[in-house]
Design a protein that fits this description.
By secondary structure, the protein is an alpha/beta fold. Helix content is about 25%, strand content about 30%. Strands 1, 2, 3, 4, 7 and 8 form a six-stranded mixed sheet that branches. The model has no long low-confidence stretch (mean pLDDT about 80).
Length: about 170
């Protein structure tokens, strides 16, 4: 499986030629209702929408790149909605992996997560974003989690810089 790039805006496919690129503004997906039925049904969400295939792609890749606007130190709304739905990719109970307590991903692959946050964010908002990112990935089996920030007008240059990250 290729790597997965999930973004909340249009980006050039030239930047990530070895990845599947998902623009959250061009797909149909429902908000999680919070019933956690998916955790009781071996990861099967009862919504039949585009998130089903995105969940499969998430399980099949080893590198995930999120490109999101940072708003008030948090993920943008399309990302929050998507991240809530990705709970179906994890087992409901904790287990030990390499001496760490975590939720096992249904894919059983340890993934790398790269988050590129763009927009006008203060240092306090960047710190809050990193704290939220650390808290939201705590307990999941990522081999590494990295976050980078840039202004919106610098995003194309940053993406050009990270564009080759999906080769290895």
């Amino acid at each position: 499986m290729k790597n997965l790039v999930v973004t909340d805006r249009d980006i050039s496919t030239d930047y990530f030629q070895n990845s599947v690129i998902v623009n959250l503004n061009n797909i149909h997906y429902s908000s999680c209702t919070g019933g956690l039925t998916c955790l009781k049904c071996e990861g099967a969400c009862y919504f039949k929408d585009d998130m089903s295939i995105i969940s499969k792609w998430t399980n099949d890749c080893q590198l995930i790149i999120y490109i999101t606007r940072v708003k008030y130190g948090c993920f943008d709304i399309p990302f929050k909605k998507m991240l809530e739905r990705l709970v179906v990719n994890h087992e409901p109970y904790y287990t030990m992996v390499d001496g760490e307590t975590c939720h096992l991903g249904l894919s059983q692959l340890r993934k790398k997560l790269l988050v590129i946050g763009y927009g006008q964010a203060t240092d306090a908002e960047k710190k809050l974003f990193k704290d939220i990112l650390d808290d939201s990935t705590l307990g999941f089996s990522y081999s590494s989690v990295d976050a980078y920030f840039c202004e919106e007008d610098e995003l194309d240059e940053v993406l050009r810089t990270f564009g080759g990250v999906d080769l290895g």
